[in-house]
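Input.
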Amino acid sequence: MSEKLNTLLDPRWNQKRTVIDLAPRPTLDELKDGKILFYNNTKLGFCNYYTVFTRIKEHLTELGVTNWVEYTETVRGKDAEMLADYAAMLARENPTAAIVAFGDMGTSSSTTVLTIELEKLGIPAVYMTAPPGTGITRGVGYYRAGNLCMSSVDIYQASTEEEIAAEVDGQWDYIINSLTKNGDDLLALANIDIPMDRGEIRADGTLAFLPAYDEGRAAEPGAFIEEVTDYFNDERLGDGLPIVPPTKARYERMRAYCPWPEDETLCDASGPAGGKITVKDVIIAAIMAGCKPTALPVLVATCKALNNKRYNLNQSVTTSHPGGNMVIVSGPIAQEIGISGQQGCLGPGWPHNATIGRAINLLMIDIFRSVPGVCDLDCLASQAEFTYCFAEEPKLAQWNMINEDRFDAETTTVYVLKAEPLHDIIDFLSLNGHDLLDTITACCTTLGSNNAYMPGPLVVCLTPDHGMMLKKDGYTKEMIQAHIHTYVYHQTPMVNGRGLVPVRPKEWDNRHPLPVTRTPKDVEVVTVGGRGGHSGVILPWALHSEGIVEPLALPDGTIAKTLNEFKAE
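Output.
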Protein backbone atom coordinates (compact mmCIF):
# COMPACT_ATOMS: atom_id res chain seq x y z
CA MET A 1 0.00 0.00 0.00
CA SER A 2 2.69 2.47 1.01
CA GLU A 3 4.78 1.74 -2.07
CA LYS A 4 1.82 2.41 -4.39
CA LEU A 5 0.99 5.68 -2.70
CA ASN A 6 4.60 6.74 -3.10
CA THR A 7 4.05 6.93 -6.87
CA LEU A 8 1.50 9.71 -6.85
CA LEU A 9 1.97 12.04 -9.81
CA ASP A 10 3.27 15.50 -8.99
CA PRO A 11 1.11 18.23 -10.58
CA ARG A 12 4.24 20.43 -10.66
CA TRP A 13 6.22 17.78 -12.59
CA ASN A 14 7.39 20.31 -15.19
CA GLN A 15 7.97 23.27 -12.87
CA LYS A 16 11.01 25.41 -13.69
CA ARG A 17 12.78 27.54 -11.09
CA THR A 18 15.15 29.96 -12.76
CA VAL A 19 18.06 31.46 -10.83
CA ILE A 20 19.58 34.54 -12.45
CA ASP A 21 22.91 36.22 -11.79
CA LEU A 22 22.25 39.61 -10.25
CA ALA A 23 23.92 42.55 -11.92
CA PRO A 24 27.16 43.77 -10.28
CA ARG A 25 26.44 46.71 -7.98
CA PRO A 26 28.26 50.05 -8.37
CA THR A 27 30.05 51.91 -5.61
CA LEU A 28 28.47 55.04 -4.17
CA ASP A 29 30.93 57.16 -6.15
CA GLU A 30 29.88 55.37 -9.35
CA LEU A 31 26.24 56.08 -8.48
CA LYS A 32 27.12 59.78 -8.14
CA ASP A 33 28.83 59.80 -11.53
CA GLY A 34 26.14 57.74 -13.26
CA LYS A 35 22.42 57.99 -13.83
CA ILE A 36 19.53 56.45 -11.89
CA LEU A 37 16.55 55.10 -13.86
CA PHE A 38 13.20 55.58 -12.14
CA TYR A 39 10.42 53.49 -13.65
CA ASN A 40 6.85 54.36 -12.63
CA ASN A 41 4.21 51.80 -13.53
CA THR A 42 1.65 54.69 -13.50
CA LYS A 43 0.53 53.68 -9.98
CA LEU A 44 2.51 56.53 -8.39
CA GLY A 45 0.12 58.95 -10.07
CA PHE A 46 -2.67 58.01 -7.66
CA CYS A 47 -3.38 58.77 -4.01
CA ASN A 48 -0.13 59.97 -2.37
CA TYR A 49 2.01 57.18 -3.80
CA TYR A 50 4.42 59.44 -5.69
CA THR A 51 5.88 60.30 -2.29
CA VAL A 52 7.78 56.99 -2.65
CA PHE A 53 9.90 58.44 -5.46
CA THR A 54 10.02 61.91 -3.95
CA ARG A 55 11.46 60.63 -0.69
CA ILE A 56 13.96 58.30 -2.40
CA LYS A 57 15.19 61.19 -4.53
CA GLU A 58 15.61 63.33 -1.40
CA HIS A 59 17.75 60.61 0.20
CA LEU A 60 19.82 60.25 -2.98
CA THR A 61 20.35 63.99 -3.18
CA GLU A 62 21.72 63.97 0.39
CA LEU A 63 24.31 61.44 -0.83
CA GLY A 64 25.21 63.59 -3.84
CA VAL A 65 23.33 61.46 -6.39
CA THR A 66 21.32 63.90 -8.48
CA ASN A 67 21.31 62.59 -12.06
CA TRP A 68 18.24 60.54 -12.93
CA VAL A 69 15.75 59.86 -15.70
CA GLU A 70 12.13 58.79 -15.21
CA TYR A 71 9.79 56.73 -17.38
CA THR A 72 6.05 56.35 -16.75
CA GLU A 73 4.12 53.65 -18.60
CA THR A 74 1.81 50.85 -17.54
CA VAL A 75 2.80 47.21 -17.82
CA ARG A 76 -0.86 46.30 -18.39
CA GLY A 77 -1.41 44.39 -21.59
CA LYS A 78 2.28 43.48 -21.95
CA ASP A 79 3.24 39.81 -22.09
CA ALA A 80 6.68 38.46 -21.11
CA GLU A 81 8.21 39.14 -24.53
CA MET A 82 6.89 42.69 -24.59
CA LEU A 83 8.22 43.32 -21.08
CA ALA A 84 11.66 42.10 -22.15
CA ASP A 85 11.55 44.46 -25.13
CA TYR A 86 10.50 47.35 -22.92
CA ALA A 87 13.35 46.63 -20.50
CA ALA A 88 15.77 46.66 -23.43
CA MET A 89 14.44 50.08 -24.42
CA LEU A 90 14.96 51.38 -20.87
CA ALA A 91 18.48 49.94 -20.86
CA ARG A 92 19.41 52.20 -23.76
CA GLU A 93 19.49 55.03 -21.22
CA ASN A 94 22.64 53.31 -19.84
CA PRO A 95 21.59 53.75 -16.21
CA THR A 96 23.95 52.85 -13.39
CA ALA A 97 21.01 51.49 -11.38
CA ALA A 98 17.20 51.39 -11.45
CA ILE A 99 14.39 51.88 -8.98
CA VAL A 100 11.11 50.31 -10.08
CA ALA A 101 7.68 51.09 -8.62
CA PHE A 102 4.98 50.39 -7.80
CA GLY A 103 3.69 46.92 -7.09
CA ASP A 104 0.71 46.96 -4.78
CA MET A 105 -2.06 45.23 -6.74
CA GLY A 106 -2.79 43.60 -10.09
CA THR A 107 0.22 44.80 -12.05
CA SER A 108 2.69 43.57 -9.42
CA SER A 109 3.51 40.39 -11.32
CA SER A 110 4.35 42.09 -14.61
CA THR A 111 6.32 44.87 -12.91
CA THR A 112 8.39 42.23 -11.14
CA VAL A 113 9.11 40.58 -14.49
CA LEU A 114 10.28 43.95 -15.83
CA THR A 115 12.64 44.31 -12.84
CA ILE A 116 14.03 40.83 -13.52
CA GLU A 117 14.63 41.73 -17.17
CA LEU A 118 16.58 44.83 -16.11
CA GLU A 119 18.79 42.66 -13.87
CA LYS A 120 19.41 40.27 -16.76
CA LEU A 121 20.59 43.23 -18.83
CA GLY A 122 23.16 44.12 -16.18
CA ILE A 123 21.23 46.95 -14.51
CA PRO A 124 21.15 46.76 -10.69
CA ALA A 125 17.56 47.24 -9.59
CA VAL A 126 15.40 47.45 -6.49
CA TYR A 127 11.65 46.96 -6.74
CA MET A 128 9.33 48.98 -4.49
CA THR A 129 6.19 47.11 -3.50
CA ALA A 130 3.42 47.15 -0.88
CA PRO A 131 0.74 44.83 0.48
CA PRO A 132 -1.02 42.94 -0.97
CA GLY A 133 1.37 43.01 -3.92
CA THR A 134 4.31 42.00 -1.75
CA GLY A 135 3.24 38.36 -1.70
CA ILE A 136 2.96 37.93 -5.43
CA THR A 137 6.12 39.97 -5.98
CA ARG A 138 8.02 37.51 -3.83
CA GLY A 139 6.46 34.57 -5.65
CA VAL A 140 7.35 35.87 -9.10
CA GLY A 141 10.87 36.67 -7.91
CA TYR A 142 11.27 33.20 -6.38
CA TYR A 143 10.20 31.24 -9.46
CA ARG A 144 11.53 33.45 -12.24
CA ALA A 145 14.72 34.85 -10.74
CA GLY A 146 15.57 32.93 -7.58
CA ASN A 147 16.75 36.14 -5.94
CA LEU A 148 15.74 39.78 -6.32
CA CYS A 149 15.98 42.97 -4.28
CA MET A 150 12.50 44.06 -3.18
CA SER A 151 11.55 46.72 -0.67
CA SER A 152 8.05 46.49 0.77
CA VAL A 153 6.56 49.64 2.28
CA ASP A 154 3.46 49.20 4.41
CA ILE A 155 1.18 51.79 2.82
CA TYR A 156 -2.28 51.83 1.22
CA GLN A 157 -4.62 54.14 -0.65
CA ALA A 158 -5.40 56.37 2.34
CA SER A 159 -1.79 56.75 3.55
CA THR A 160 -0.68 60.36 3.97
CA GLU A 161 2.47 61.82 2.46
CA GLU A 162 4.04 61.86 5.93
CA GLU A 163 3.21 58.19 6.53
CA ILE A 164 4.62 57.15 3.15
CA ALA A 165 7.80 59.18 3.68
CA ALA A 166 8.26 57.52 7.07
CA GLU A 167 7.90 54.06 5.49
CA VAL A 168 10.53 54.91 2.87
CA ASP A 169 12.82 56.22 5.60
CA GLY A 170 12.49 52.89 7.38
CA GLN A 171 13.49 51.05 4.20
CA TRP A 172 16.24 53.42 3.09
CA ASP A 173 19.18 51.37 4.35
CA TYR A 174 17.83 48.34 2.51
CA ILE A 175 17.27 50.34 -0.69
CA ILE A 176 20.74 51.91 -0.87
CA ASN A 177 22.45 48.67 0.18
CA SER A 178 20.55 46.79 -2.53
CA LEU A 179 22.06 49.16 -5.09
CA THR A 180 25.64 49.17 -3.78
CA LYS A 181 26.44 45.88 -2.00
CA ASN A 182 27.93 42.80 -3.69
CA GLY A 183 28.87 39.24 -2.83
CA ASP A 184 27.26 37.56 0.17
CA ASP A 185 25.79 40.86 1.33
CA LEU A 186 23.86 41.21 -1.92
CA LEU A 187 22.68 37.60 -1.87
CA ALA A 188 21.36 38.09 1.66
CA LEU A 189 19.48 41.23 0.61
CA ALA A 190 18.02 39.48 -2.46
CA ASN A 191 17.11 36.22 -0.72
CA ILE A 192 13.49 35.12 -1.21
CA ASP A 193 11.81 32.59 1.04
CA ILE A 194 8.24 31.39 0.44
CA PRO A 195 6.33 28.71 2.36
CA MET A 196 6.07 26.15 -0.46
CA ASP A 197 7.96 24.40 -3.26
CA ARG A 198 11.19 24.32 -1.30
CA GLY A 199 12.05 20.74 -2.24
CA GLU A 200 13.39 19.49 -5.54
CA ILE A 201 11.02 18.39 -8.28
CA ARG A 202 11.72 14.70 -8.89
CA ALA A 203 12.88 13.72 -12.38
CA ASP A 204 10.33 10.90 -12.62
CA GLY A 205 7.42 13.29 -12.03
CA THR A 206 6.25 11.63 -8.81
CA LEU A 207 5.74 13.02 -5.34
CA ALA A 208 8.00 12.17 -2.44
CA PHE A 209 5.00 11.13 -0.37
CA LEU A 210 5.03 8.23 2.06
CA PRO A 211 2.14 8.21 4.55
CA ALA A 212 2.31 6.49 7.87
CA TYR A 213 1.23 2.90 7.25
CA ASP A 214 -1.67 1.77 9.44
CA GLU A 215 -2.45 -1.94 9.21
CA GLY A 216 -5.81 -1.32 10.83
CA ARG A 217 -6.90 1.00 8.05
CA ALA A 218 -5.43 -0.80 5.05
CA ALA A 219 -8.74 -2.41 4.08
CA GLU A 220 -10.84 0.68 4.80
CA PRO A 221 -12.58 2.05 1.68
CA GLY A 222 -10.74 5.14 0.55
CA ALA A 223 -7.90 4.49 2.95
CA PHE A 224 -5.26 7.23 3.08
CA ILE A 225 -7.47 9.82 1.31
CA GLU A 226 -7.13 11.98 4.42
CA GLU A 227 -3.33 11.70 4.39
CA VAL A 228 -3.14 12.45 0.68
CA THR A 229 -5.40 15.49 1.05
CA ASP A 230 -3.42 16.78 4.04
CA TYR A 231 -0.18 16.35 2.12
CA PHE A 232 -1.46 18.24 -0.92
CA ASN A 233 -2.87 21.02 1.22
CA ASP A 234 0.34 21.31 3.26
CA GLU A 235 2.33 21.58 0.02
CA ARG A 236 -0.14 24.22 -1.27
CA LEU A 237 -1.16 21.93 -4.13
CA GLY A 238 -4.81 21.62 -3.14
CA ASP A 239 -7.81 23.91 -2.82
CA GLY A 240 -8.86 22.81 0.67
CA LEU A 241 -11.27 20.11 -0.49
CA PRO A 242 -10.53 16.37 -0.50
CA ILE A 243 -8.13 15.33 -3.28
CA VAL A 244 -8.50 12.24 -5.45
CA PRO A 245 -4.95 10.77 -5.44
CA PRO A 246 -3.40 11.17 -8.92
CA THR A 247 -2.08 7.65 -9.36
CA LYS A 248 -0.60 6.28 -12.58
CA ALA A 249 -3.56 3.91 -12.98
CA ARG A 250 -6.05 6.78 -12.74
CA TYR A 251 -3.92 8.75 -15.18
CA GLU A 252 -4.22 6.01 -17.79
CA ARG A 253 -7.99 5.74 -17.27
CA MET A 254 -8.40 9.52 -17.59
CA ARG A 255 -6.84 9.38 -21.06
CA ALA A 256 -9.84 7.45 -22.45
CA TYR A 257 -11.19 10.58 -24.18
CA CYS A 258 -7.85 12.33 -24.72
CA PRO A 259 -6.41 12.00 -28.24
CA TRP A 260 -3.95 14.90 -27.75
CA PRO A 261 -0.20 14.39 -27.11
CA GLU A 262 0.65 14.65 -23.43
CA ASP A 263 3.27 17.33 -24.00
CA GLU A 264 1.08 19.63 -26.10
CA THR A 265 1.03 23.16 -24.62
CA LEU A 266 -2.47 24.51 -24.07
CA CYS A 267 -1.69 27.70 -22.09
CA ASP A 268 1.43 29.82 -22.42
CA ALA A 269 3.64 30.74 -19.47
CA SER A 270 1.67 32.70 -16.88
CA GLY A 271 1.40 33.43 -13.19
CA PRO A 272 4.11 33.65 -10.54
CA ALA A 273 5.80 30.43 -11.64
CA GLY A 274 5.65 31.24 -15.35
CA GLY A 275 4.40 27.70 -15.95
CA LYS A 276 2.85 26.37 -19.14
CA ILE A 277 -0.25 24.19 -19.00
CA THR A 278 0.15 20.97 -20.99
CA VAL A 279 -2.30 18.17 -21.70
CA LYS A 280 -0.56 16.13 -18.99
CA ASP A 281 -1.21 18.89 -16.47
CA VAL A 282 -4.88 18.90 -17.40
CA ILE A 283 -5.15 15.14 -16.92
CA ILE A 284 -3.57 15.29 -13.44
CA ALA A 285 -5.79 18.22 -12.39
CA ALA A 286 -8.86 16.38 -13.69
CA ILE A 287 -8.00 13.36 -11.52
CA MET A 288 -7.43 15.49 -8.42
CA ALA A 289 -10.74 17.30 -8.97
CA GLY A 290 -12.73 14.09 -9.36
CA CYS A 291 -13.54 14.43 -13.07
CA LYS A 292 -14.68 11.57 -15.28
CA PRO A 293 -12.59 10.88 -18.42
CA THR A 294 -15.36 12.39 -20.55
CA ALA A 295 -14.46 15.82 -19.13
CA LEU A 296 -11.12 16.01 -20.99
CA PRO A 297 -12.45 17.48 -24.29
CA VAL A 298 -14.16 20.30 -22.37
CA LEU A 299 -11.08 20.96 -20.22
CA VAL A 300 -8.78 21.09 -23.25
CA ALA A 301 -11.10 23.49 -25.11
CA THR A 302 -11.38 25.64 -21.98
CA CYS A 303 -7.60 25.92 -21.64
CA LYS A 304 -7.32 26.90 -25.30
CA ALA A 305 -9.90 29.64 -24.70
CA LEU A 306 -8.05 30.86 -21.59
CA ASN A 307 -4.90 31.11 -23.70
CA ASN A 308 -6.49 33.51 -26.16
CA LYS A 309 -4.53 36.79 -25.96
CA ARG A 310 -7.77 38.69 -25.49
CA TYR A 311 -8.46 36.86 -22.23
CA ASN A 312 -5.39 38.37 -20.48
CA LEU A 313 -4.69 35.13 -18.62
CA ASN A 314 -1.36 36.26 -17.16
CA GLN A 315 -2.89 39.05 -15.13
CA SER A 316 -6.17 37.24 -14.48
CA VAL A 317 -4.54 34.48 -12.43
CA THR A 318 -3.20 36.89 -9.81
CA THR A 319 -5.68 39.77 -9.82
CA SER A 320 -7.18 41.09 -6.58
CA HIS A 321 -10.62 40.73 -8.20
CA PRO A 322 -12.66 37.88 -6.65
CA GLY A 323 -13.80 36.44 -9.96
CA GLY A 324 -13.39 32.91 -11.26
CA ASN A 325 -12.87 31.45 -14.71
CA MET A 326 -16.50 30.91 -15.67
CA VAL A 327 -17.15 28.16 -18.24
CA ILE A 328 -20.47 27.83 -20.09
CA VAL A 329 -20.69 24.70 -22.26
CA SER A 330 -23.20 24.92 -25.10
CA GLY A 331 -24.05 22.16 -27.55
CA PRO A 332 -24.87 18.44 -27.71
CA ILE A 333 -21.65 17.13 -26.13
CA ALA A 334 -22.53 19.00 -22.93
CA GLN A 335 -25.61 16.81 -22.59
CA GLU A 336 -23.68 13.67 -23.57
CA ILE A 337 -21.24 14.31 -20.74
CA GLY A 338 -23.93 15.31 -18.25
CA ILE A 339 -22.95 18.94 -17.66
CA SER A 340 -26.08 20.58 -16.36
CA GLY A 341 -27.95 23.78 -17.07
CA GLN A 342 -30.95 22.64 -15.05
CA GLN A 343 -32.30 23.71 -11.68
CA GLY A 344 -29.46 24.66 -9.35
CA CYS A 345 -26.83 24.34 -12.10
CA LEU A 346 -24.57 27.01 -10.58
CA GLY A 347 -24.53 25.29 -7.20
CA PRO A 348 -23.89 21.92 -5.59
CA GLY A 349 -25.29 18.59 -6.72
CA TRP A 350 -24.02 18.47 -10.30
CA PRO A 351 -20.78 16.44 -10.32
CA HIS A 352 -19.64 17.26 -13.86
CA ASN A 353 -20.20 21.00 -13.36
CA ALA A 354 -18.39 20.97 -10.02
CA THR A 355 -15.40 18.85 -11.01
CA ILE A 356 -14.71 20.46 -14.40
CA GLY A 357 -14.73 23.94 -12.87
CA ARG A 358 -12.60 22.71 -9.98
CA ALA A 359 -9.98 21.21 -12.31
CA ILE A 360 -9.53 24.59 -14.01
CA ASN A 361 -8.96 26.27 -10.65
CA LEU A 362 -6.46 23.61 -9.57
CA LEU A 363 -4.44 24.34 -12.72
CA MET A 364 -4.21 27.99 -11.66
CA ILE A 365 -2.87 26.93 -8.26
CA ASP A 366 -0.57 24.07 -9.25
CA ILE A 367 0.90 25.16 -12.58
CA PHE A 368 0.90 28.93 -12.30
CA ARG A 369 1.32 28.77 -8.48
CA SER A 370 -1.29 31.42 -7.91
CA VAL A 371 -1.68 30.19 -4.35
CA PRO A 372 -4.22 31.94 -2.12
CA GLY A 373 -2.60 33.83 0.72
CA VAL A 374 0.89 33.39 -0.73
CA CYS A 375 1.14 34.37 -4.41
CA ASP A 376 -2.38 35.59 -5.16
CA LEU A 377 -3.68 39.11 -4.74
CA ASP A 378 -7.28 38.20 -3.88
CA CYS A 379 -8.54 40.47 -1.10
CA LEU A 380 -11.55 38.28 -0.28
CA ALA A 381 -11.81 35.73 -3.14
CA SER A 382 -15.11 33.93 -3.71
CA GLN A 383 -16.74 30.58 -4.29
CA ALA A 384 -16.33 31.24 -8.03
CA GLU A 385 -12.64 30.38 -7.59
CA PHE A 386 -13.45 26.88 -6.39
CA THR A 387 -15.51 26.00 -9.44
CA TYR A 388 -17.57 27.87 -12.05
CA CYS A 389 -19.03 25.69 -14.79
CA PHE A 390 -22.51 25.04 -16.15
CA ALA A 391 -24.23 24.31 -19.46
CA GLU A 392 -26.98 25.66 -21.64
CA GLU A 393 -29.96 23.31 -21.94
CA PRO A 394 -31.53 23.06 -25.42
CA LYS A 395 -34.92 22.16 -23.91
CA LEU A 396 -34.91 25.41 -21.91
CA ALA A 397 -33.46 27.77 -24.52
CA GLN A 398 -35.82 30.50 -25.73
CA TRP A 399 -33.41 31.79 -28.36
CA ASN A 400 -30.22 30.65 -30.07
CA MET A 401 -27.64 29.25 -27.68
CA ILE A 402 -24.03 30.45 -27.69
CA ASN A 403 -22.84 27.61 -29.95
CA GLU A 404 -25.61 28.34 -32.46
CA ASP A 405 -24.79 32.06 -32.57
CA ARG A 406 -21.09 31.42 -33.17
CA PHE A 407 -21.19 28.13 -35.11
CA ASP A 408 -24.22 25.82 -35.45
CA ALA A 409 -26.48 23.54 -33.41
CA GLU A 410 -24.23 20.49 -33.90
CA THR A 411 -21.07 22.21 -32.64
CA THR A 412 -20.30 22.24 -28.92
CA THR A 413 -18.49 25.29 -27.53
CA VAL A 414 -17.11 26.62 -24.29
CA TYR A 415 -17.59 30.29 -23.40
CA VAL A 416 -14.98 31.45 -20.89
CA LEU A 417 -15.17 34.71 -18.95
CA LYS A 418 -13.23 36.00 -15.95
CA ALA A 419 -16.19 37.04 -13.83
CA GLU A 420 -17.79 37.59 -10.45
CA PRO A 421 -20.11 35.02 -8.88
CA LEU A 422 -23.73 35.19 -9.96
CA HIS A 423 -25.65 38.23 -8.69
CA ASP A 424 -29.28 37.39 -7.93
CA ILE A 425 -32.12 39.16 -9.77
CA ILE A 426 -35.43 38.62 -7.98
CA ASP A 427 -38.74 39.38 -9.66
CA PHE A 428 -41.84 37.36 -8.74
CA LEU A 429 -44.37 40.14 -9.34
CA SER A 430 -43.88 41.60 -12.83
CA LEU A 431 -46.73 40.56 -15.12
CA ASN A 432 -45.02 41.30 -18.41
CA GLY A 433 -41.62 41.19 -20.05
CA HIS A 434 -41.33 44.97 -20.22
CA ASP A 435 -41.35 45.45 -16.43
CA LEU A 436 -39.18 42.37 -15.95
CA LEU A 437 -36.54 43.72 -18.31
CA ASP A 438 -36.39 46.93 -16.28
CA THR A 439 -35.62 44.86 -13.17
CA ILE A 440 -32.91 42.94 -14.98
CA THR A 441 -31.41 46.13 -16.40
CA ALA A 442 -31.13 47.72 -12.94
CA CYS A 443 -28.97 44.81 -11.73
CA CYS A 444 -26.32 44.89 -14.47
CA THR A 445 -23.87 47.22 -12.68
CA THR A 446 -23.14 49.08 -9.46
CA LEU A 447 -20.52 51.67 -8.51
CA GLY A 448 -18.63 48.81 -6.85
CA SER A 449 -18.53 46.65 -9.99
CA ASN A 450 -15.60 46.52 -12.36
CA ASN A 451 -17.80 47.30 -15.36
CA ALA A 452 -18.57 50.74 -13.94
CA TYR A 453 -14.99 51.65 -14.89
CA MET A 454 -14.10 49.09 -17.54
CA PRO A 455 -16.83 48.24 -20.05
CA GLY A 456 -16.93 44.62 -21.07
CA PRO A 457 -18.98 41.44 -21.46
CA LEU A 458 -21.67 40.34 -19.03
CA VAL A 459 -23.96 37.32 -18.92
CA VAL A 460 -27.67 37.48 -18.13
CA CYS A 461 -28.89 34.11 -16.81
CA LEU A 462 -32.67 33.92 -17.20
CA THR A 463 -34.74 31.29 -15.48
CA PRO A 464 -37.21 29.51 -17.79
CA ASP A 465 -40.13 31.54 -16.39
CA HIS A 466 -38.40 34.85 -17.04
CA GLY A 467 -37.24 33.70 -20.47
CA MET A 468 -40.78 32.71 -21.42
CA MET A 469 -42.17 36.05 -20.22
CA LEU A 470 -39.74 38.01 -22.35
CA LYS A 471 -40.29 35.86 -25.41
CA LYS A 472 -44.07 35.99 -24.99
CA ASP A 473 -43.93 39.77 -25.10
CA GLY A 474 -41.99 39.71 -28.37
CA TYR A 475 -38.42 40.12 -27.14
CA THR A 476 -35.66 38.55 -29.21
CA LYS A 477 -32.19 38.02 -27.83
CA GLU A 478 -31.00 40.96 -29.94
CA MET A 479 -33.68 43.22 -28.45
CA ILE A 480 -32.66 42.27 -24.89
CA GLN A 481 -29.02 42.90 -25.73
CA ALA A 482 -29.80 46.29 -27.26
CA HIS A 483 -31.96 47.35 -24.31
CA ILE A 484 -29.33 46.50 -21.71
CA HIS A 485 -26.56 48.13 -23.74
CA THR A 486 -28.62 51.32 -24.05
CA TYR A 487 -29.93 51.66 -20.52
CA VAL A 488 -27.18 50.27 -18.28
CA TYR A 489 -24.83 53.15 -17.57
CA HIS A 490 -23.46 55.45 -14.86
CA GLN A 491 -23.53 59.21 -14.63
CA THR A 492 -19.99 60.33 -15.38
CA PRO A 493 -19.48 62.40 -12.17
CA MET A 494 -20.36 59.31 -10.12
CA VAL A 495 -17.48 57.24 -11.47
CA ASN A 496 -14.77 59.91 -11.51
CA GLY A 497 -12.21 59.61 -8.74
CA ARG A 498 -13.52 56.41 -7.19
CA GLY A 499 -13.41 52.68 -7.83
CA LEU A 500 -10.30 52.02 -9.89
CA VAL A 501 -8.33 53.44 -12.78
CA PRO A 502 -10.69 53.29 -15.76
CA VAL A 503 -9.90 51.40 -18.95
CA ARG A 504 -12.24 52.64 -21.64
CA PRO A 505 -12.20 53.22 -25.41
CA LYS A 506 -10.30 56.40 -26.21
CA GLU A 507 -13.32 57.91 -27.93
CA TRP A 508 -15.19 57.80 -24.60
CA ASP A 509 -12.98 60.46 -23.00
CA ASN A 510 -15.77 63.07 -23.01
CA ARG A 511 -18.73 60.71 -23.00
CA HIS A 512 -21.66 61.24 -20.65
CA PRO A 513 -23.22 59.07 -19.33
CA LEU A 514 -20.84 56.07 -19.39
CA PRO A 515 -22.19 52.71 -20.58
CA VAL A 516 -20.93 49.46 -19.07
CA THR A 517 -20.91 47.65 -22.41
CA ARG A 518 -19.30 48.67 -25.69
CA THR A 519 -21.85 47.12 -28.03
CA PRO A 520 -25.04 45.05 -27.59
CA LYS A 521 -22.95 41.95 -28.36
CA ASP A 522 -21.21 42.41 -25.00
CA VAL A 523 -24.45 41.16 -23.44
CA GLU A 524 -24.78 37.37 -23.49
CA VAL A 525 -28.21 35.94 -22.71
CA VAL A 526 -28.76 32.32 -21.62
CA THR A 527 -31.81 30.50 -20.25
CA VAL A 528 -30.82 28.10 -17.49
CA GLY A 529 -31.95 26.81 -14.11
CA GLY A 530 -35.36 25.93 -12.69
CA ARG A 531 -38.79 27.52 -12.66
CA GLY A 532 -39.27 30.61 -10.51
CA GLY A 533 -38.43 34.27 -10.14
CA HIS A 534 -34.68 34.22 -9.44
CA SER A 535 -32.67 35.05 -12.53
CA GLY A 536 -29.13 36.37 -12.29
CA VAL A 537 -26.40 38.42 -13.90
CA ILE A 538 -22.70 37.60 -14.07
CA LEU A 539 -20.51 40.71 -14.15
CA PRO A 540 -17.00 40.71 -15.63
CA TRP A 541 -13.48 41.42 -14.47
CA ALA A 542 -13.05 43.19 -17.84
CA LEU A 543 -9.44 44.33 -17.41
CA HIS A 544 -8.19 43.90 -20.98
CA SER A 545 -10.20 40.67 -20.79
CA GLU A 546 -12.86 39.41 -23.18
CA GLY A 547 -15.30 36.52 -23.15
CA ILE A 548 -13.82 33.84 -25.41
CA VAL A 549 -15.68 31.12 -27.33
CA GLU A 550 -13.82 27.95 -28.35
CA PRO A 551 -15.31 24.91 -30.12
CA LEU A 552 -14.61 21.36 -29.00
CA ALA A 553 -12.25 20.22 -31.75
CA LEU A 554 -10.09 17.18 -32.46
CA PRO A 555 -6.28 17.44 -32.59
CA ASP A 556 -6.36 18.10 -36.34
CA GLY A 557 -8.75 21.03 -35.85
CA THR A 558 -11.88 19.21 -37.02
CA ILE A 559 -14.89 20.23 -34.96
CA ALA A 560 -16.30 17.23 -33.12
CA LYS A 561 -20.00 16.45 -33.29
CA THR A 562 -20.09 13.67 -30.70
CA LEU A 563 -18.16 12.71 -27.59
CA ASN A 564 -17.08 9.36 -29.04
CA GLU A 565 -14.92 11.10 -31.64
CA PHE A 566 -12.50 11.91 -28.83
CA LYS A 567 -12.26 8.32 -27.65
CA ALA A 568 -8.66 7.14 -27.73
CA GLU A 569 -8.05 4.06 -29.85
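The chain has a mean pLDDT of 93.
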